[in-house]
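Structure ticket #2291
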Amino acid sequence: MSHRVFVLNPDKSPLMPCTAKRARKMLEGGKAAVWRRYPFTVILKEASPNLSQPLALKLDPGSKTTGMALVLKGKTGKQ
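Resolution: structure written out below.
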């Protein structure tokens, strides 16, 4: 299972989530800083083009735990 990290532009607009490895490299390279610890979110220090895709948050309320998933909308994702 690949965990994703939320990414924000310096103006706090959301970007596409990235992998934990990519977020770690941005943090080590000084290109990003930790914005929140839960859910783990990084904020970029320099502006990036707003290349985001439409996403939907799906919730699965279980009997003991609640599952969350980000689902891509559009041609490659299912509505």
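Closing remark: The longest strand covers residues 55-61.
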